[in-house]
Amino acid sequence: MLFRRASELIGLDIGSSSIKVVQLKEIEGNYTLTRFGMVSLAPEMIVDGTIMDSVRCVEILQNLIKDQSITSKDAVISLSGHSVIVKKVVLPQMTEDELAESIRWEAEQYIPFDINDVNMDFQILNTFADAEGKSQMNVLLAAVKKDKMTEYTSLVIEAGLKPVIVDIDAFALENMYCINYDVREDETIALINVGASLTNINILQGGTFAFTRDVSIGGNKYTETIQKDLGLSYDDAEKAKKGENVEGVDSFTLDPVIENVSNEIVSEITRSFGYFKTASGNEKIDKIMLGGGASKTKNFGNYLQERLETPVEMLNPFRKVQIPPEFDSAYINNAASMATVVVGLGTRRLSDK
After folding, report:
1. Are the C-beta atoms of residues 26 and 350 closer than 8 Å to each other?
2. Interacting residues of 71 by C-beta distance below 8 A, sequence separation 6+
3. Between the CA of residue 201 and those of 174, 211, 226, 320, what are the distances in Å?
4. Which residue in 336, 303, 302, 298 sits closest to 319, CA to CA?
């Protein structure tokens, strides 16, 4: 279920600060946007990935689907955070059917949860011969806690939709990147999505998955810190974070607060890169592709580039997607940073593997 790249489904990204929906029409690998919409959520509705007010979330989702005149009921959603485990493991070469029979036993040593409490899926990435000449294979293993999956699928079902695929944010980022950018075999690319409560990191080597980690810090940290340090209301802290004018707030007082939070996020990204380099032996990341609503925070991209001494480019999930003239181009451009995951979900098809 987790890996089967899903006719024209609804991509549905249920985040801590907003719900995004997209539909993409695909013809021979080329994508056209047919539906796109997003709506903000109050900060108490989904907290750290936990749905606190499902009734209001269902109502908002239903209204969003109605406003976008979406008739399809089949939806692709994604999950991330502590309830999701993704590992690249090395196993003796075997057939896919043999692996399907033994995967639960193999997974027990890699999954830090009771194996009966998770839903799992796998994908064989490649095969190779080890130093002793034995046939081995790299396998991508993903597991999601059943209670977290039920929490989100139940919300979607209550809204009158059918969750036909459950994906993972990091993989959705990868799918979005691959339809919009040219993949080079000699490049190591870090896809970073700074959301409201989480930062997703996915590293690709030659366009193939190499490493992923979710960090429990995002744009909400800016708002909370500004609110606390400058004595503002939540709404005014949000405005200040976005660069809007707030009475009594100037760059002299605001910039150091923003920089401190940016330093926290960048430190976690740096730590993640260290984990990847240690595990892979790869000392170089060629480029960082940056997205997520919080990626537009003042000077964040420049700060990330300076700290990691790595070129940073903003992700555009609509870069190669045809946008019909009936769409408001200014709205699409403004929403692009927040649409990285949902566009990746919109590429999924039930016939994919």
Report:
1. no
2. none
3. 10, 8, 25, 22
4. 336
Residue 36 lies in a domain: no
Nearest in space to 124 (alpha carbons), one of 152, 88, 164:
88
**CATH code of residue 195:** 3.30.420.40
Owner of token pair 């769409």: 327
Question: pLDDT tens-digit profile of 214-269?
Answer: 999 999 999 999 999 999 999 999 999 988 899 999 999 999 999 999 999 999 99
Determine, yes or no, domain membership for 125. Answer: no
- 41 Cβ neighbours under 8 A, 6+ residues apart: 15, 16, 17, 18, 19, 57, 60
Q: CA-CA distances (angstroms) from residue 76 to 59, 141, 169, 203, 285?
A: 19, 20, 11, 23, 31
The terminus-to-terminus CA distance of the chain in angstroms comes to 10
In a domain, 22, yes or no: no
**Per the structure block, which two tokens stand in for 17?**
């600060």
| Within a domain: 37 | no
Sequence letter at residue 305: Q
Judge if pTM exceeds 0.90.
Answer: yes
Distance CA 301, CA 192 (A): 11
Q: What is the pLDDT of residues 267-285, one digit of tens each?
A: 999 999 999 999 888 778 9
Per-residue HEC secondary structure of 62-82 comes to HHHHHHCCCCCCEEEEEECCC
Q: Which residues contact 21 (CB under 8 A, 6 or more apart)?
A: 10, 11, 12, 13, 35, 36, 37, 38, 64, 65, 68, 70, 342
Full domain range(s) for residue 304: 182-314
For residue 78, what are the β-bridge partners? 167
Could you give the 3-state DSSP secondary structure of residue 165? strand
What total of structural domains would you count in the chain?
1
